[in-house]
Amino acid sequence: MRRSFAFALLLASIATPVLAQTPPATIGDRYIPAPWWMRDPVIASVGQVRVEIQANRAFVSASFQSVDRSVTEASRAAADQVRALSQALSAYGADKVRVETSVTTRPIYDQYRDADGVMRDNVRADRVARYQADAAVNVTVRDVALIERVYATIVASRPTAIGQVNFNLEPENSWKANLQAEAMKDARRRAEAAATNAGATLGRVKIIDPSGRVCQTDVLAGWPSYAAGGGPATSVDEVVVMGARAEARMAFAPPPPPPAPTAGGAGPSEADIQAARLALQPPLRTLTDSACVIYGLN
Prior knowledge:
298 residues
């Protein structure tokens, strides 16, 4: 009798943790227990907002090429060309314009025609005809008000090739926080409108999910989505997101001053820069955010 009783206790101690790990329901079951926040009537509201902000970064690259019989002279000539441009651009300050330069050199071999009549390089150390040096300049403009003048300075330097100007938006942390706050406000506005139209009143907040994933997925497996909202995002004024930065940008600003003269008069002349100026307007980029807030209903 004592053995059977002890054996039963042993089975109970083994079975208890197994039962504790058993989920309350199987995904796909017809009847699934609701989460705690659905014991009373609720409304799940998705706040969706968007704002258009002018790009605040610009990128452009240029390259200079030099060919000479001497590898030293070829590299020096290319380096001199890129040095003059980098000095002119660095006069703006590293906080506004950042410049990265590099120089690569490769041999140019004599060529010969093979038995099939195809021209081929005679790749041998004693058959080097000339050396080609390529100097590259990668420019990041952090103050986009300067992009027209920076681009004109590059053109006036007469590089071998110039890349396309690319723009990008790198939002500040304060902008992200302000946009997230607007998404929360939008979730409440949508919930209040939906509750009023349904003849109910909005109750207290049950769940706040800044990521918005609670409302984007079927929280109750096998049950349809029930979130209020969706559809087009609410547009937010850029001043609300950017604050004083947007007000300063939209205010009239005089054209940027020319860069300080470089040592030894290096770089293109002011007349060449003005002659090479083109209209380059930074495009608008869209930032979006969403938030999920679940309210009770009265």
